[in-house]
Amino acid sequence: TYAPKLILLDISDINCIQDVAKEILNCYGCVDVLINNASMKVKGAVQSISLELDKKIMDANYFGPIILTKAILPNMISRRTGQIVLINSIQGKVGIPFRAAYAASKHAAVGFFDCLRAEMEEFNISVSTVNPTFICSYHHQPAPANWEASIWK
């Protein structure tokens, strides 16, 4: 039995994810179940969302979970056991208007984790993708000229 340890991680900050994964593995030695459940979304017309914000959404919803999974995966493979879960969104299967960046990031994540599932079968590692329908999340009211405040977390 291990005492819980709080480790803070901003999944959209892709430069720190591998260090956090190393910290977790150094502390506990392994990860039995990895649940990727962080997400960001923004609502707006394609032409009104900046490329900078598109990239931020992609970092949080696609690259973040992938970098974390890849950092934990070698340990699971060496032990030939583990479970990886991606909590995604129905928008990873069907896009809706005014959510292009979000839907694109979720589609990409589904594709990656579908491929990973097939590759990990031989190592007895289970990979699951959960695509719930719309959920309630909190929203920061945007301040003028502050695109980060328009992100749903």
From TrEMBL:
Record keyword Oxidoreductase present: yes
Stretches that traverse the bilayer: none
A single MF term (Gene Ontology): oxidoreductase activity, acting on the CH-OH group of donors, NAD or NADP as acceptor
Domain of life: Eukaryota
Entry keywords, A to Z: NAD, NADP, Oxidoreductase, Signal
InterPro entries registered for this protein in UniProt: NAD(P)-bd_dom_sf, Sc_DH/Rdtase_CS, SDR_fam, SDR_family_member_7C
Keyword NAD: yes
One GO process term, biological-process aspect: intracellular calcium ion homeostasis
Similarity-based family: Belongs to the short-chain dehydrogenases/reductases (SDR) family.
Record protein name field: Dehydrogenase/reductase SDR family member 7C
Organism: Ceyx cyanopectus (Indigo-banded kingfisher)
Originating gene: Dhrs7c
